[in-house]
Each structure stands twice: as C-alpha cells, then as structure tokens.
Design goal:
Shape: globular
Largest sheet: 5 strands, parallel
CATH topology of the largest domain: Rossmann fold
Structural class: alpha/beta
CATH architecture of the largest domain: 3-Layer(aba) Sandwich
Strand content: 15-25%
Distance between the termini: 19 Å
CATH superfamily of the largest domain: Response regulator
Helix content: 25-40%
CATH class of the largest domain: Alpha Beta
Number of helices: 8
Length: 230
Amino acid sequence: MKEDATILVIDDELQIRRLLDITLSANGYRIISADRGKTGLIEAATHNPDLILLDLGLPDMDGQELLKQLREWYTQAIIILSVRDNETDIIQALDNGANDYLTKPFRSGELLARIRASIRSIQKTDDQPVIERSNITIDLANHTVKKNHELLKLTSTEFALLALLARNEGRVLTHRFILTKVWGHGYAEQTQYLRVFIAQLRRKIEDNPSRPTLLITESGIGYRFGDGES
C-alpha cells in the first residue's frame, strides 16, 4: 500500500462517510469527504487523491455522469460504492471508467482489499517489463510466460488476453472491454468466445483451474487479475 494514500469519499449518506472515515483512517489512509457531486469534483481537482470512493445516488447529479466527468482528466483509481446492484448499472460504471464496484452494504475487509488492489494497479506503468504473481512470471517485452520457471506455450491471443488482465491487476474489466481490446469491436458481444479462452488460460497458469486465484470471474460482469493467493 502506498503510505499515507489520500482517499476522497463522495457520498451523501452521513453514516457511510463516518464509517469510511473511521475504517480507512484506522488503516493509514487520509480521508477527504464530499456530500455532493459538484463538491466532489472540486475536491478531486484540488487534492488529486490516490483513489475516489464514489456513490452513484447523489442528490445534485447522477453518479454515472460524475464518473464520466472525472475520467476526462482524473487518472487514479475510482471504486463505486452503491446500493444499485443490477448488472446494467455495474457494467455501465465499469465501462465509464470505474476500477471496481462494490454494492452496499459492504464488508470492510473486502473494501480494504479492493482499495489496495486498485491503488496497486494504478501505480503500475504500461512499460513494466515483468509481472510476477504467485508462481507465474509474465514478460511483457518478450511475450513469454513462465510457471515455476518453466516456459508455457501460449498462443498470441492467449498472451494478449493475459497481458491485458495483468496490466490491470485488481481492476474489473467487463466482457465488452476485454473482447474489444483483444479481438476488436466485431467481437464485443461474443462472451462465450471469451469464456473459452479464459478456460484455456486457467488450465495453463492456475494451480487449480476450478478455483482460480489469478483469473477471477466477476459473475455477469467480466474478469480481474488476482494476486495469486487463495
């Protein structure tokens, strides 16, 4: 975790803001709060926090619109905290640039883990040559993957898929986003096609493909790259 990371909470519920203030402060984070979308924009521009926790149900503007406005210039992590739990809202938020999405009520331990993963993923740079997680080594420059120091045979498509997820460690990537990035816009709706490739990759890189710790399914939404720990 980045030391003394600053988190901006944009939420109109006073109890939620108090809970987050207590929980996050106890774990070494500096907290800034806003109870309106417009105030949140000002605070984000003023302090450039390391991460934003954003509620979608704000009184002065729609959270999805605020998310899009933030993503016009804000490059750090954004996690949505919302009572909206339908797939349409979740997918829309992730496609609009959110790194992750948790529904209320949430567990503090899970929130803290998601925050750590999101901050860690943003701190990575695209030119990072090697990513190591668990017993897997992904060499982005040389397009190679090793498991327990043994070279794996991956197709170019399998490597592109794995590299995309690994570069975005901790971030939930939607089916549409992955399909478009790896295969192109013509494949944006081919979710079954993606499942086949994920299954193939799991058989090659996971110790137990039926209980993956690297290629994690976000049911109905997409996938994220985990830390390799069960």
